């Protein structure tokens, strides 16, 4: 019975894609969704179970209704996690290491707005004070700037 639960948990973890304002973990699925829905990818390089600023950002912004509502309509959310306590599937670990190297991540949290091909539309968004409303306002400003720069 335990093996069934472990297999199910592994399936859920590897099949995770961003749905309805939730964070996905599959890079190829995130790019496909962004292309299909014509939305930017908001990629979050994080340490969900140890990084203080990452945890603060989750509690103050990402878990709040104002952010979730905006994200559901306007973004594809992609989480690239580097946990210390929880174990991720080997394919997710390999994918995350590749993305970390590709985007030259130097610290956590690091967050970018990307197009459907993975090209940066913004510099690191990072942690910002002011709660979800201020964070959403900043994301809107970055996306507007990206459109005028294109």
Automatic annotation (TrEMBL):
InterPro entries: AGR/TXD (IPR051099), Thioredoxin-like_sf (IPR036249), Thioredoxin_domain (IPR013766). Residues 2-144 form the Thioredoxin domain. It comes from the Bacteria. PROSITE patterns: THIOREDOXIN_2 (PS51352). Residues 1-18 form the signal peptide. Coiled coil: none annotated. Keywords: Signal. This is Thioredoxin family protein.
């Amino acid at each position: 019975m335990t093996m069934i639960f472990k297999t199910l948990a592994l399936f859920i973890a590897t099949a995770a894609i961003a749905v309805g304002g939730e964070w996905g973990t599959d890079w190829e699925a995130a790019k496909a969704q962004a292309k299909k829905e014509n939305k930017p990818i908001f990629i979050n390089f994080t340490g969900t179970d140890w990084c203080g600023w990452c945890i603060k950002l989750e509690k103050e912004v990402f878990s709040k209704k104002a952010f979730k509502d905006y994200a559901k309509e306007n973004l594809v959310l992609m989480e690239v996690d580097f946990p210390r306590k929880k174990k991720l599937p080997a394919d997710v670990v390999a994918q995350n290491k590749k993305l970390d190297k590709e985007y030259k991540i130097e610290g956590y949290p690091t967050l970018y707005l990307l197009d459907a091909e993975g090209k940066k539309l913004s510099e690191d968004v990072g942690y910002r004070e002011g709660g979800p409303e201020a964070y959403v306002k900043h994301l809107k400003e970055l996306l507007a700037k990206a459109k005028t720069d294109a």
